[in-house]
Amino acid sequence: MSTIKNYWQNYIGGRWVDSVSGRRLPVENPATGRPFAEIACAEGPDVDLAVEAARRAVAGRALYDMKPDKRCQLLNRMASEVRALGPEIIPVLTADNGKNLEFSADEVEGTARYFEYYAGMADKMHGRSIPLGDGYVDYTQLAPYGVSAQVVPWNFPLELAARSLAPALAGANAVVIKSPELSPLAVCFLAIAAEKAGLPEGYLNIICGLGNVAGEALTGHLGIDHIVFTGSVATGRRILHKAAERVVPCVMEMGGKSAGIVFPDADLDATARSAAIGILAHGGQVCSAGSRLIVHRSVHDQIVDKIVAVAKGFTMGPGDANHFLTPLISANQLEKVEGYCRSGIQAGAKPVIGGKRADRPGYFMSPTVFTGVTQDMTIHREEIFGPVLSVLPFDEPDEALSIANGTEYGLAAGVYTRDLKRAHWMADRLEAGTVFVNQWFAGGNEVPFGGFKRSGFGREKGVEALGNYVQVRNIAIRL
Ligand code: NAD
Hints:
Blueprint lengths: L6 E2 L1 E3 L2 E3 L6 E6 L4 E7 L3 H17 L1 H4 L2 H30 L3 H19 L16 E9 L2 E5 L5 H14 L3 E6 L5 H13 L6 E5 L2 H9 L6 E5 L2 H14 L3 E4 L4 E5 L5 H13 L9 E7 L3 H14 L17 H16 L3 E4 L14 E4 L6 H4 L6 E7 L2 H8 L4 E2 L1 E5 L3 H8 L6 E4 L14 E2 L2 E2 L4 H5 L3 E9 L1
Parallel strand pairs: 1-5, 7-8, 7-10, 8-9, 10-11, 12-13, 12-18, 13-16, 15-16, 18-19
Antiparallel strand pairs: 2-3, 4-5, 6-22, 11-21, 14-15, 17-20
Helix pairs in contact: 1-7, 3-4, 3-5, 3-6, 4-5, 5-6, 9-10
This protein binds nicotinamide-adenine-dinucleotide (NAD).
The site of nicotinamide-adenine-dinucleotide has 30 residues, from helix 7 and helix 8.
């Protein structure tokens, strides 16, 4: 901890700057509940400066006019610089986010991979020629939107910022990132990597500030052309209202209440482990966490016992000591998660394990497994964003599908079975943008990710994401 800088600035137009007002936000370590650093607190005037810097970059066309091979090399250098900064980033991310060092290292690698992955595409984005008959030439171009405003949540701040930044740069957009006020520090390293890699000035601007001040000012700014929002449905809805006023295109990546379905022929030990990791990794603060498990009645009790055994095998403690059960992000989040557990208990659900905060300093929540959950309960319908699993029994596959599809969300879903035909039949009917079969969180930077229903629209990751960062211009020529 002693090596971590105690004051961090915003990054605007290629310079590290204080906020115009001079205000700062405290940054806490969730494992202790104590502040250990400060970051410049951006407000309206800082947002104006960041958007102006991005507009100047777009007008200068440095990235748009760059030869494709050079843009690839630039993004590849971003990947290398992020990897080289890894030893500095990892302890900082663990300190302000709570996740363990191993997960922070995974996040650094995932971040580097986004730049590498989209570097490999920056020279393969092109239009097509469309025959229009004698006397005409017609072709399409992929044009950048211009200034992309990107609002990032705190659970994977670095990786999610890179997930949108990398394809945006591949498409020659300039970006203003609003980093999350609860875990802002690791995102600053993207600017360090960009400087070292030689990204032209103004193409990356990073401001940290409160959602209802800096986030509002950025997403409502007249100088932006594009919004990428990753966060809760409530905030997303607010942003969409404002975007509608100005017809600004949006990519919306929001919450989930994802369900895994367990058939009796599944490998029950592997399933229990996968389901436990699916809800307990990073304290369940994962948009695609498997927060519901719908288990065939014949193996329901066995699966519950096995999950409880897996959970008891994980140790709890600070991320810098590499424990698996790490803290929630804040006192508010802990209160919210505990409140959901209280509501579940009041409604008649039974906590087989956990159900309340852990008795230790910091924001630790006990791993929690509820049985006796019914579909009308709040804990079954709403995203808790904590280590809280609801287990429900089923008898027939159609019933399992109806329970799994029975919420407003549609981010991820899962099926555990050895029967490939059944897995495919279920996957084809699950209302989710991602379906995991036999391993929760299977996938990588290469696969598209995003929501059905209220979980959002547009896709991030994979080849699919690129289409969100460029617009098609058709040029029809009468010769
Ligand atoms: P949040 O909506 O509270 O905040 C997300 C970001 O929006 C933060 O940077 C915040 O400052 C900003 N914000 C808040 N109010 C704003 C406003 N009025 N205008 C503009 N910006 C505003 O969400 P959170 O608590 O930080 O993150 C957790 C949520 O994010 C969960 O619902 C989770 O499922 C979701 N999430 C989704 C994905 C995905 O890819 N689908 C990934 C990670 C997290």
